[in-house]
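Subject: Sanity check before I submit

Could someone independently write out the structure tokens for this chain? I want to compare against mine line by line before I put it in a report. The sequence has 144 residues.
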Amino acid sequence: MPKVTRWFIKAGMLYFLLGVILAFISELPLLNTGALLLPVYWHMLVIGWLTQIIMGVSIWMFPRKWRDKKKRESVLCLLTFWLLNAGLILRFFAEPFIPFFRDYLAIQFVIIISALFQVAAISTYIAEIWPRVQPRNRKTPASA
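---
Independent answer below. Compare away.
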């Protein structure tokens, strides 16, 4: 299993745990933070957990056409991992403050950068996986 696959899966499990904890905390009546934390824990669960698990497993299950003797990690896979997680972390820190600082350009800028990082991560993932998805070689049956 490639190292980057392990990173995706471990990060996905961490986001799953944090997302469930945050969802629980947001439902506590004393804190009254449900509306503020709703988009944060949904991003943790959908992008942080599901998407990263899918990406990690697909990188592992769809091998590259060419094999590198050193078994180096693909630059695009590493870039995907770091872009996706940087975008998620930026979003986690900025999104709860949108209702309070909607007019501040700094919050808008962080959200835009976060979204751009996530779109770039999806693009690099597609660029990495696309050549790997190929039909299976079928052998023609020997004629009798």
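---
OP: Matches mine. For the report I'm noting this point. Residues 13 and 47 are 12 Å apart (CA to CA).
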